[in-house]
Amino acid sequence: MAASPCFKLIEFTGQAILIEFRPRLRAHRGKLGEHGSDERGAEVHAASFLHRRLIILDSALLRNKRECERILAHEIFHFVWWKAPAIRTEYGSLIGREFITATPGEMGWSADWRKQALRAGDVANNSRAFREYLCESFCDSCACLLLGISRHEEITLPASARKIRRHFFEANLAGRRLKV
């Protein structure tokens, strides 16, 4: 059962973002293709192209409204992350505290696999791998919290850490106009 959404009246501002659906998406070396055009790479649900103001979603998501909403919300929050350096800094501090306490898990697959791939020193050195993890963690967390998703097979973050993140997002995003 989903919890009630914790964000109240978030308003997104900025130029329009185009949303396209394409079949059987795959990503390989930073390039997005469709199944059949290039068999290499991993299957993906979506991709965001910030400078082009474009989100591409796998058309299979049209068969699952709730999952489509979660993935689309995640992708929209990539634009928020890009435009909000102060939030990036604050969120980085929050996640740094999670690393100090060795908090396991995440709010979605895209963050979890990046978290698992981090090496010793990535957090302290603010490496590119850590910054990419922070972005995915932020977007996964925002999507779940915005939509009130408390249970999902990809949510492995303990309830106590989810509560701390929810308070962070309520303090920093709820009732705000977020630039995308």
Give a description of the structure:
- By secondary structure, the protein is an alpha/beta fold.
- The chain has one domain (11-179).
- Helices cover 43% and strands 17% of the residues.
- The chain contains five helices and eight strands.
- It has helices spanning 65-83, 85-100, 109-117, 128-147, 159-172; strands spanning 11-13, 18-22, 25-28, 31-34, 42-43, 46-49, 54-58, 177-179.
- The strands form three sheets. A three-stranded mixed beta sheet has the order 2-7-6, with helices on one face. The protein has a three-stranded antiparallel beta sheet with strand order 4-3-5, with no helix packed on it. A two-stranded parallel sheet has the order 1-8.
- Helix 2 (85-100) packs across helix 4 and helix 3 (109-117) packs antiparallel against helix 4 (128-147).
- The mean pLDDT is 90.
Please tag this protein with its features.
180 residues; three-stranded antiparallel beta sheet; 17% strand; three-stranded mixed beta sheet; 8 strands; alpha/beta; globular
Please tally the β strands and state the result. Answer: 8
Largest sheet: 3 strands, mixed
Helical percentage: 40-55%
Tally of individual helices: 5
| Poorly predicted residue ranges | none
What characteristic shape results from the CA principal axes? Answer: globular
Distance between the termini: 30 Å
Order of helices and strands: EEEEEEEHHHHHE
Biggest sheet strand order reads 2-7-6
Number of individual domains = 1
User: Could you tell me the strand content as a percent range?
Assistant: 15-25%
The chain-level mean pLDDT equals 90
Radius of gyration (Å)? 16 Å
- Structural class of the helices, strands and pairings? alpha/beta
